[in-house]
Amino acid sequence: MSVVMAVVIVAATGLVGAGILVIASKYLAVEVDPRITMVAEELPGANCGACGFAGCADYAGAIVEDGAEVNLCVPGGAAVAGKVADIMGTDAGDVAQRKAIVACQGSFDHATNKYDYAGIDSCKANAALHGGSSSCPYGCLGYGDCAKACKFGAIEVRDGLARVNPVLCTGCGACEEACPKRVIWIREVSEKPVVMCANHHRGAQTRKECTAGCIGCKKCEQTCPEGAIVVRDNVARIDLDKCVGCRACVNVCPVKAIAIPKVV
Question: 216-220: long-range contacts (C-beta < 8 A, 24 or more apart)?
Fold first, then answer.
């Protein structure tokens, strides 16, 4: 009898509790703006964080509730910005297309290894051992941390060098963050050249480390009609605001360390 009574009491308590929860959910519910769901459905769902928010859901909430700009979704680009702008009744503004660039040409054809590495396949782990196994202390290590970080399958490692497929790349920046050598850059799509090297050693030493490295000869600096190039710390640097894309530097570079990356 006591067991039956206990069951009845527990069941009754449960029913009362359920009723209280139903009432509470009805009267204490926080109304959600339906536009948040509408905006979230237009976002690509990559949750890459390139917009500056934790994920697509957070970005959708920030747009509707906090007035965040509608054109921050890098993977979605102008198409998504336009749809979100329509929902919010605002202007999408200019959306610059961005792509990842591996600013290094130190493949097995140009660089060697200074020691045999037998650790885990990780650039970060490799870099912790005397700066990495590559003969160039500034170049790509080729163990694919960037490829593992890319959610779009836009990066692969061939011949010891990370390579970006511009068709698949969304410019989200995950690869840039993953690279311990910082040789992956996210830049706006343009026809302007890039110095595909970050080696700061003197020319003779750079040539020993990588045959495609910048030797700081200053021919590009002296040739540029816009004064957009300077050699600093033994490596050429291009001011993209001054550069007009004439390619004079590309043509004059004796080691072909300056190139126009494929971004489309």
Answer: 217/254, 219/252, 219/253, 219/254, 220/248, 220/249, 220/252, 220/253, 220/258
What's the number of CA atoms in the CB half-sphere (13 Å) around residue 132?
A: 22
Task: Give the pLDDT score at 263.
Answer: 61
Count of C-beta atoms within a 10 Å radius of residue 166: 15
The yes-or-no verdict on residue 160 having pLDDT over 70 is yes
Any idea which of 86-100, 103-117, 220-234, 248-262 has the lowest mean pLDDT?
86-100
Could you tell me which residue, 257 or 54, shows the higher pLDDT? Answer: 257
Q: What integer pLDDT is reported at residue 99 of this predicted model?
A: 92
pTM of the predicted structure, to 2 decimals: 0.76
**More confident site: 95 or 134:** 134
What does the pLDDT average to over 193-216?
96
Tokens for 72, please give them.
Answer: 């921050």
Using a 10 angstrom Cβ sphere, with 0-12 exposed, 13-18 middle and 19 or more buried, the burial of residue 156 is: middle
CA distance readout (Å), 143 to 111, 184, 249: 15, 14, 31
DSSP 153: -
Q: What is the DSSP string of 14-82?
A: HHHHHHHHHHHHHHSPPPPPHHHHHHHHHS------TTSSSSHHHHHHHHHHH---TT--TTTHHHHHH
Distance CA 43, CA 84 (A): 8
Question: Do residues 43 and 87 touch, judged by C-beta distance below 8 A?
Answer: no
Task: Give the strand pairing for 184-188 and 98-102.
Answer: antiparallel
The mean pLDDT value for 30-42 works out to 85
In 3-state terms the chain splits into helix, strand, coil percentages (rounded to 5) of: 35, 15, 55
